Amino acid sequence: MTDVTRPSRLEPIGVIAFVLGIVLVLVDFASIFIDAAFIRSGDYTSFSTVSFVITTISVVLALTAITIGIVACLRGGATRVYGAIGTTVGAMVLLQQFGTLVYALIVNV
């Protein structure tokens, strides 16, 4: 009797972390143009508010990508690499946002 091998089940959790990483890159890219538009208009109050909102969205997405990516790496399987990529991109964006916060604190002192 022959054993029928089941195809490996694809776990989407790593792909979710990877997609969140792509969304983070797109949000970061779009924020460059949004910030430039507000700086050019001279409306610095709105610039401050929009910058805060974009930073908050980026931090939440980065923490989510890191968490889901770590879970995907620990579970193993076919999507471990996608989880690692999502974790790495999330950590890079979180580090970038932390650097932006430190820069703002230094400039405002």
Automatic annotation (TrEMBL):
Keyword Membrane assigned to the entry: answer is yes
- Annotated keywords: Membrane, Transmembrane, Transmembrane helix
Q: Which domain of life is it from?
A: Bacteria
Membrane spanning stretches: 12-39, 51-74, 81-106
Designated name of the protein: Uncharacterized protein
